[in-house]
């Protein structure tokens, strides 16, 4: 895949870039290793000052970088600016809290005495250069939620971004440089996916994090397993959205529309499978379909657009294949389901009902504005349908029954359970999944400690 900005609204190639050659890649790996030796000894106060400066610059750049993201991958411009604002918020969150999150810990005094020590501390130390392999769908946020905690912990970052968002990738390196981080603290590597394996095998690279597809995650995990290097993987998701009879039905239906089409439906944590109790199924389906049909589709740079194009021609074709397979197998199309005429990689908001286990869309992630509706007779069946997926990233439940909340929180196989609201990442909450959605956690104290050497310091009398 070429490293290029291709406007998904019209298919026009705007900029192309040559991949870095081996000599330049080697220079950057050397720089990362050398920079880490000194950066690791900087104080939390100094790192915090630099990250606050990066956040301030990002706020200033919000209109410009928002337009770049929209042009590169098609998200509506308002959502692009909101993404930039969210990134600045996360930077400040870690800048203000990292020192406390990584403070030395001391076991209870009786346990220390029992070990024969006069003092025992647990210390969090940085690992070194970390490779981040990141996707195009949230081209700023996916990177910042790794970079902010990693830099505050004293690591240095190497970014291999998706090949269709090179301008955003280069902006990130420039942002941290303008903020005052030393050259080598955060570097963008303009390389193809074929170069990733060699970097992972380089002894100077100590760990890796990947957000992306399941095949990409398998490849990174396999190499890092062979090299015995730490990895964090956030892969696909096919999140359930369960609606029970006690729910505020109107609000559940309105939020369901946003939960499905956020980022043009191209989000791992977007609700994709809507599992509705039979007592309220018809009423919910009517409101949900009406909401999906009312969405404004158009130029993502238009302030009024709610759904823009998919990021690539291939992505739209993959989505069409899932929908067409479901239709051939008997699924009912309640709205959408047909590619529009004209330029750009648009696909309409679509709702499918009558889904069976034989349909590909039941097992595979639909990465675009396509929702599947399921009918459940009771809570037990709702849980069975929700868990009948290879993925387990997040989940959404709508109920005002406290006993049902506890059942769903106990039994849903997911990294998060959001009750009476849609899934949204936040710096304070751990983020990640189970099953084929990956392992490890980003954000919160759990995320900043993923790439730390948790060191026991034992002192005798």
Word description of this protein:
With 461 residues, the chain is of the alpha/beta class. 43% of the residues lie in helices and 20% in strands. The chain has a seven-stranded mixed β-sheet, sandwiched between helices. Strand 9, helix 9 and strand 10 (271-277) form a beta-alpha-beta unit. The protein is globular and about 70 Å long. This is NADP-dependent succinic semialdehyde dehydrogenase. It is an enzyme of class 1 (oxidoreductase). It holds the Pfam family Aldedh.
Characteristic key phrases:
single chain; 461 residues; alpha/beta; Aldehyde Dehydrogenase, Chain A, domain 1; Aldehyde Dehydrogenase, Chain A, domain 2; 2 domains; seven-stranded mixed β-sheet; six-stranded mixed β-sheet; globular
Strand adjacency order, main sheet? 11-12-13-10-9-15-16
* Secondary structure: helix percent: 40-55%
> What would the CATH topology of the largest domain be?
Aldehyde Dehydrogenase, Chain A, domain 1
Give the biggest beta sheet. 7 strands, mixed
The amount of beta strand, in percent, is 15-25%
Using only CA atoms, what is the Rg?
23 Å
Q: Given the structure, what is the number of helices?
A: 15
- Shape, per Cα inertia axes: globular
| Total strands | 19
Low-confidence stretches: none
When the domains are counted, the total is: 2
- Secondary structure class reads alpha/beta
Q: Average pLDDT across residues?
A: 97
CATH architecture of the largest domain: 3-Layer(aba) Sandwich
CATH class placement of the largest domain:
Alpha Beta
Q: What's the N-to-C terminus distance? A: 61 Å
């Amino acid at each position: 895949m070429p490293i290029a900005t291709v406007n998904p609204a019209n298919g026009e190639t705007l900029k192309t870039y040559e991949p870095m050659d081996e000599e330049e890649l080697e220079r950057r790996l050397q720089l990362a290793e050398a920079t880490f030796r000194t950066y690791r000894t900087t104080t939390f106060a100094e790192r915090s000052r630099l990250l606050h400066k990066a956040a301030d610059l990002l706020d200033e750049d919000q209109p410009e970088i928002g337009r770049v993201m929209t042009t590169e991958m098609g998200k509506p411009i308002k959502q692009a600016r909101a993404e930039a604002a969210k990134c600045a918020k996360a930077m400040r969150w870690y800048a203000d809290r990292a020192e406390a999150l990584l403070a030395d810990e001391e076991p209870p005094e009786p346990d220390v005495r029992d070990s024969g020590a006069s003092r025992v501390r647990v210390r969090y130390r940085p690992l070194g250069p970390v490779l981040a392999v990141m996707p195009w769908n949230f081209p700023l946020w996916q990177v910042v939620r790794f970079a902010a905690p990693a830099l505050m912990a004293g690591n240095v970052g190497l970014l291999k971004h998706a090949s269709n968002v090179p301008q955003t990738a280069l902006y990130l390196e420039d942002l941290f440089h303008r903020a005052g981080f030393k050259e080598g603290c955060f570097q963008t590597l303009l390389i193809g996916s074929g170069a990733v394996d060699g970097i992972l095998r380089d002894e100077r690279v100590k760990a890796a994090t990947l957000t992306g597809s399941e095949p990409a995650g398998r490849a990174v995990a396999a190499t890092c397993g062979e090299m015995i290097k730490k990895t964090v993987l956030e892969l696909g998701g096919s999140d359930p959205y369960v609606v029970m009879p006690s729910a505020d039905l109107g609000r559940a239906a309105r939020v369901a529309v946003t939960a499905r089409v956020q980022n043009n439906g191209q989000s791992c944590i977007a609700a994709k499978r809507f599992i509705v109790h039979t007592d309220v199924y018809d009423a919910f389906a009517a409101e949900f379909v009406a909401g999906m049909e009312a969405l404004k589709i158009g130029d993502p740079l238009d302030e009024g657009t709610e759904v823009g194009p998919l990021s690539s021609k291939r992505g739209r074709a993959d989505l069409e294949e899932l929908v067409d397979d479901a239709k051939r197998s008997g699924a009912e199309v309640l709205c959408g389901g047909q590619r529009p005429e004209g330029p750009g990689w648009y696909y309409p908001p679509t709702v499918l009902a009558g889904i069976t286990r034989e349909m590909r869309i039941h097992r595979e992630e639909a990465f675009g504005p396509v929702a599947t509706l399921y009918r459940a007779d009771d809570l037990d069946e709702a849980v069975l349908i929700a868990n009948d997926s290879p993925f387990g990233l997040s989940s959404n439940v709508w109920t005002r029954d406290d006993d049902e909340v506890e059942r769903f929180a106990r039994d849903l196989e997911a990294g998060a359970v959001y009750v009476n609201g849609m899934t949204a990442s936040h710096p304070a909450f751990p983020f990640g999944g189970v099953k084929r959605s990956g392992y490890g956690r980003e954000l919160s104290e759990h995320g900043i400690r993923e790439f730390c050497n948790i060191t026991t310091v034992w002192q005798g009398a």
